[in-house]
Design brief:
Elements: E1 7-16, E2 19-29, E3 34-38, H1 45-53, E4 60-65, E5 68-69, E6 80-83, H2 95-105, H3 110-123, H4 139-151, E7 157-161, H5 169-186, E8 189-194, H6 197-203, E9 206-211, E10 214-219, H7 221-226, H8 231-237, E11 240-243, E12 254-257, E13 262-263, E14 270-281, E15 285-291, E16 298-303, H9 304-309, E17 317-322, E18 328-329
Parallel strand pairs: 3-8, 3-9, 6-7, 7-8
Antiparallel strand pairs: 1-2, 1-4, 4-5, 9-10, 11-12, 12-18, 13-17, 14-15, 14-17, 15-16
Helix pairs in contact: 2-3, 2-4, 3-4
């Protein structure tokens, strides 16, 4: 088993002329962790990943991998491997030779590199497809080959640039499970860029929410979901209502989870009135959107039985309530 390497960013900054893409961020990813960088387009997550990989120069700050500053080191000497969003497989090479390509560049003998490539294909359950060309594979199969190619050099850090974005929803779930299994079995550090909150929640030990080139909050996914530090994190992670200062007497800006809201006069010790704007049936839950003063995009998530015991419809005026203990203060 390969040993994972810790990754540390110290005041890391990336500027493209006058445009600052990454604005002096600090982050430590312990060895063997699964870290997801997430945020909207343009937040700096991909530039951060590319600086770690060595595909972008660092403007200021330091990057340490395994305790060593690697600012000026080329990608091949960082102990990292990168899996690109496009997979970038060679169309004229079969799976075995695609996976073995980096070993060929290092001068490893043909029989040895093909043997190691087949071992990696077996690791990602693609051994039966070793002789196929990329065009003969599905998107999910191509992704597995790209993973095997990235892992064959036994990196200490695997970097993944939105690896699941091109897959259909069902396959995306299966590949999330596969990535989690590989991380557990191989034991190296994974740093994964995504714009999907669900993906980050499902995969990461450390989720890092970025906004405008800075880190808004970093920590275990459950911590971010239950204790978002800012309104941006609460909205981006989802599942929260952000309530403006003054809506609740003697309270500043705060958040309350949508699944903690109840309808009716007995819904809790804090009550607001709203009009049902939208209604979606999700099977086990029903999602309501309410127009509530001082709480834009107010949402309520009810269990199916609870909703149908006292159904409401679009246009109805309702009372929504929650417990004061469910209120989470946000930074102003």
């Amino acid at each position: 088993m390969t040993t994972g390497a810790a990754v540390e960013l110290i005041k890391l900054r990336k500027a493209y002329g006058a445009t600052v893409a990454v604005d002096g961020i600090d982050l430590r990813v312990p060895a063997g962790s699964y870290c997801c960088l997430l945020g909207p387009s343009g937040c700096g997550k991909t530039s951060t990943l590319r600086m770690i990989a060595g595909h972008e120069d660092i403007t200021d700050g330091d990057l340490l991998i395994g305790g060593t500053v690697v600012n000026g080191e080329p990608p091949a000497r960082r102990g990292t491997a990168m899996m690109f969003q496009s997979y970038a497989l060679f169309p004229h090479l079969d799976c075995t030779d695609n996976v073995a390509f980096s070993l060929k560049m290092k001068g490893v003998a043909k029989d040895e590199r093909r043997r190691r490539a087949r071992e990696m294909l077996d690791l990602v359950d693609m051994g039966a497809y070793a002789g196929r060309l990329p065009a003969q594979l599905s998107g999910g199969q191509q992704q597995r080959v790209a993973l095997a190619r990235a892992l064959i050099t036994h990196p200490g850090v695997l970097l993944l640039d939105e690896p699941l974005s091109a897959l259909d929803p069902f396959l995306r779930i299966r590949m999330r499970e596969e990535l989690k299994r590989l991380h557990r079995d191989i034991g190296i550090t994974f740093i994964h860029v995504t714009h999907s909150q669900t993906e980050a929640m499902a995969l990461s030990d450390i989720a890092v929410v970025m906004n405008g080139g800075r880190i808004e909050q970093a920590g275990p996914p459950r911590e971010l979901f239950n204790r978002p530090r800012t309104a941006f994190v609460a909205r981006f992670i989802g599942g929260h209502n952000v309530i403006e200062a003054g809506v609740i007497p003697d309270a500043g800006p705060c958040a309350v989870r949508a699944d903690r809201i109840r309808l009716g006069a007995g819904g809790g010790d804090i009550q607001v009135e709203g009009t049902v704007r939208s209604l979606e049936y999700h099977g086990s839950t029903v999602h309501l959107g309410l127009d509530v003063a001082g709480a834009p995009d107010f949402a309520v998530v009810l269990d199916e039985a609870g909703y149908f015991a006292a159904p409401v419809t679009v246009g109805d005026t309702v009372r929504a309530g929650w417990s004061r203990s469910d209120v989470h203060p946000l930074a102003a």
